[in-house]
Each structure stands twice: as structure tokens, then as C-alpha cells.
Design a protein that fits this description.
The complex is a heterodimer of chains A (120) and B (264). Chain A has six helices and two strands. Chain B has a two-stranded antiparallel sheet.
């Protein structure tokens, strides 16, 4: 990282993970039960982390329930869009994301999750 | 804002080399191997465009810049030697390194911090997420080999064995962390040809900091395990624990499996 104000992302190695995200979502959507990764923070403390609900969100999106997907975690749709863009080669190989944008984005997502679990 | 003439990356005002490609910054003060400041990111990927030779293991580099640990000649600045052929690191007068016979996993310290070129086998390059994951799984498997039988006995026979299994797992985890601190690698990492070093020093981080790093993996776990996946997209291939203690994991020649570090 050459500057402290931006987080440098190397998107070159994300093709396979992107395929796994979308393929995994597709599989999850057709499993009989809602299988998700248990959030360690929520399991231990009851407080969700900013990434809570992403698996559910992706699963709901693959079921066509976009309202439910947003209700679970808007970040899930962002992840899906990013994965799709990566597979379609629409993203640059490198990306510099301002740190304030990361803090603001994850902060907003966390507040959303805290509301969702009635902690705010 | 100045940009690198080689790769067009943005340069900081005080940069003497490009953090992306290692090319010297035009007009920056010349710096020799002993005087170059560490690059901002601590890690400078190898430079050069010539294809590396296919060498089976770590071989001290021939006097050609793209293939090995070669400090840049003083006039050109650190990390890039266009048109010049710096001496191989092992040939430095008084260094005492036997060419052709470095200890396994050896990585010489470089000027101003942890920076190195790649050997012909990729030695010194940042490790891939897949290799790191495999090394981690080997370590976890080793712990489970001890922990699981004790746990099963604990559940089936006597509860005390459950606590014993947890203690055993913790003890082995600490043992592996100490190995990582002292030599840069756990058994699984040695097998996969990985070495954890300080981002600035290029050297193993010591047992104390290695245990702190192991504890810092809590941060990787707590956020739905997302921290473990950071090396997939992070420019320095770091997990959050790596960032907390400023370490990077680089490639070294893989070694046969051994529970303890082989004698140097």
C-alpha cells in the first residue's frame, strides 16, 4: 500500500472465488434448508458482525427474492455484483478503494445488521 | 502526484522506489544496499522482465537482476538494476554465505527491510492463498490427530479427557506458533514451501510475536471468517492477523514433512 488513504485491492486472483460465490449461492438456493455460516461474533456475544447475513442474502437472491436478500444484508448483493463483474472481466485488475469508503460502507452495513437484530 | 515510469503506479512524495514494481524513482536520492529506506508497503515484488530459470530449489542468484536476491547497485537505487548486473547476494565480500548451499528456507536480509527478488522457483514471492490454506490444513490435521482421539475418549469414557484434548490442542498450537516465530514456518508451512516473516525486517518474527499473531487470528474468525480470505484480494496477501503484527508469507522451497524444524 503506497498511501494510507486507500486500500489497494488485487482483483487478479478473484476469478475462482467469484465463481465459487455464485456457484455456491446457486447450490445453497436449491438445498432444502437454509444453510449458512454461523457468525462467530453473534454466536459468542449475540452481536452480529458487518458481514452477517451475506450468505442468506445471496441465497435469497438466487431464489429471486430480492426484497428478502436486501433485508438480510445489502452487502450480499454487492458481493454478488462484484463476483459477476469479476467473472465478466468488467473490473480492473487492481483497485484503490478510499479507506473512508470502506469504513463508511461496512459501518452502514453493521448499523443495518444491528437494527435487523433489534440491537439498535 | 508523481507516477512510476515503469508501471504508472502512484508514488508517494518520499518514495525512492516504486512500491509496485520496485523501479527507482527518477530524481530520487541514490541509495545503496545499506542505506535504502524501506518501501511504503514493505514489500517490493521482483522486477525485471526476463523469464526466471527453472531451478529445482533455492539457488543463490547468478549475477543477473531478475532471478534472485540481488541488491541494486548504489547509483540505481534499490530494487531495480536496469542495464546493470549487481553481484549475487551470496557473493558479497565478507558475507560468509556459501554459494549453492544455503540452509533451507534461507532468506537474506535486504537493505532497508524485507525486500527480495524471486528465485527461479518463485522464492521470495508472496505466497498464494491456496498454498497457505493447504499448509494451514496440514497443521490443523496434525493437531486433530492428537486432539480428536482424546476428545472421543473424553466423551465416551471420562470427561477429563475432553479437557486434556483441549489442553493438548492448545499446547501443539503454541508449539507451532513458536516454530513459526523462530524459523518462519510451521510443519504445514514447511511442507508447502511457505515462510512467515516481518514485513519490514524480512526475518522470522520471534516466538512472542508469533503467539500474538496466532491470537490475532481471532479477528479473522470473528467477522464470519472473512479475515482468512483477505489474502485473496489484499495487495500484500495478508490476513488481518498479518496486518496486526505486520507480517507477510512468502514462498520458499518446500521441504519434506517434519514435525520439528530441520537442523540448519
Amino acid at each position: 500500500m503506497s498511501t494510507a488513504s486507500a486500500y489497494e485491492v488485487d482483483l487478479g486472483g478473484l476469478t475462482v472465488p467469484s465463481a465459487l460465490v455464485l456457484g455456491g449461492g446457486l447450490v445453497l438456493a436449491h438445498l432444502p434448508a437454509d444453510v449458512g455460516v454461523p457468525c462467530p461474533l453473534r454466536t459468542l456475544t449475540g452481536v452480529p458482525c458487518p458481514f452477517c447475513g451475506v450468505t442468506t442474502s445471496i441465497r435469497q437472491a438466487f431464489l429471486g427474492r430480492f426484497h428478502a436478500a436486501v433485508a438480510a444484508a445489502p452487502l450480499g448483493l454487492v458481493v454478488m455484483a462484484g463476483a459477476l463483474a469479476t467473472l465478466l472481466r468488467l473490473t480492473p485488475s487492481e483497485l484503490r478503494i478510499p479507506r473512508w469508503a470502506i469504513v463508511a460502507g461496512l459501518g452502514a452495513e453493521w448499523v443495518f445488521e444491528l437494527f435487523r437484530f433489534h440491537l439498535l | 502526484m508523481a507516477v512510476c515510469t515503469q508501471c504508472a503506479s502512484e508514488l508517494g512524495p518520499d518514495d525512492t522506489v516504486c512500491a509496485r514494481c520496485g523501479a527507482p524513482v527518477a530524481g530520487a536520492p541514490a541509495a545503496g544496499p545499506g542505506a535504502a529506506p524501506p518501501p511504503p508497503g514493505g514489500f517490493v515484488p521482483p522486477s525485471g522482465s526476463a523469464p526466471p530459470p527453472a531451478s529445482p530449489g533455492f539457488v543463490p542468484p547468478p549475477p543477473a537482476p531478475p532471478t534472485g536476491y540481488a541488491p541494486a547497485p548504489p547509483p540505481a537505487g534499490y530494487g531495480q538494476a536496469p542495464g546493470a548486473a549487481p553481484p549475487p547476494y551470496g557473493a558479497a565480500p565478507g558475507y560468509g554465505q556459501m554459494p549453492g548451499a544455503p540452509p533451507p528456507g534461507y532468506m537474506p536480509p535486504m537493505a532497508g527491510g524485507y525486500v527480495q527478488g524471486a528465485g527461479g522457483d518463485g522464492t521470495g514471492l508472496l505466497a498464494t492463498w491456496g498454498n497457505r490454506a493447504l499448509g494451514f490444513l496440514v497443521d490443523v490435521a496434525l493437531i486433530l490427530v492428537v486432539e480428536l482421539p482424546l476428545y472421543i475418549v473424553g466423551v465416551a469414557v471420562a470427561r477429563g479427557f475432553v479437557y486434556l484434548s483441549e489442553l493438548a490442542g492448545l499446547a501443539i498450537g503454541i508449539w507451532f506458533a513458536v516454530q513459526l516465530g523462530q524459523t518462519g514456518a510451521t510443519p504445514g508451512m514447511r511442507m508447502m514451501g511457505l515462510r512467515c516473516v516481518g514485513q519490514q525486517s524480512g526475518q522470522p518474527i520471534g516466538p512472542g510475536l508469533a503467539i500474538v499473531r496466532a491470537i490475532a487470528h481471532i479477528v479473522d474468525n470473528i467477522i464470519c471468517f472473512v479475515g482468512w480470505f483477505f489474502p485473496l484480494w489484499d495487495k500484500d496477501h495478508q490476513t488481518l492477523a498479518d496486518k496486526i503484527v505486520s507480517t507477510v508469507v512468502v514462498r520458499t522451497p518446500a521441504q519434506p514433512f517434519s514435525l520439528t524444524p530441520p537442523a540448519a
